[in-house]
């Protein structure tokens, strides 16, 4: 088995990293690490997202977000305001980091995910075959036409789904070990 990871892991946002549609559930009255939905309930990432982001970053993987939301400003704002706590087992004295700092590229706007990935490819120069995409919508499997590896996440990335690093271990021969 290969010991390579993909060069780029791309995450959809809505119902993949958090449990809502940013364009229908969130208002623009938010503060650092306190993003509220339209009912004034706090929103956050699914439980395991911080650990997933840290593990993949530690492994040297590049990140991008690809979202077809009709509220790109709110999505970017949420990523800028939500804080990712340090890894539990790191022993580090570092504080939380803005979620947006984990992402090397953001493609957040309405339209086909094919457009998002064509732009990622053009901007980053990473071959499609080196991209792994997590999304909750089956229709976005269309990116496989480009050579992107697609993983459908039906209930968000949390304890109800396989950890993305485990998926990376299995998909296209990539492995952490």
CATH structural fold name: Rossmann fold
The order of strands across the largest sheet is 7-4-1-8-9
How many runs of DSSP E, i.e. beta strands? 9
Percent strand:
15-25%
> Largest sheet, if any?
5 strands, parallel
Low-confidence stretches: 170-177
CATH class: Alpha Beta
Please tell me the overall pLDDT. Answer: 81
CATH architecture annotation name = 3-Layer(aba) Sandwich
What is the succession of H and E elements?
EHEEHEHEEEHEEH
Domains (count): 1
Q: What is the 3D form?
A: globular
Protein name: Magnesium-dependent phosphatase-1
GO molecular function: acid phosphatase activity
InterPro entries: HAD-like_sf, HAD_sf, HAD_SF_ppase_IIIC, MDP-1_euk, MDP_1_eu_arc
Describe this entry's structure for a reader.
- This protein is 24% helix and 18% strand.
- With 177 residues, the chain is of the alpha/beta class.
- The strands form 3 sheets. Strands 7-4-1-8-9 form a 5-stranded parallel sheet, with helices on both faces.
- It has a single domain (8-173), classed as 3-Layer(aba) Sandwich (Rossmann fold).
- The longest helix is centred in the C-terminal third of the chain and has 12 residues, at 113-124.
- Residues 170-177 have low confidence and may be disordered.
- The chain has helices at residues 22-25, 49-58, 72-81, 113-124, 164-170, and strands at residues 8-11, 35-36, 42-43, 62-67, 83-84, 97-98, 105-108, 131-135, 149-152.
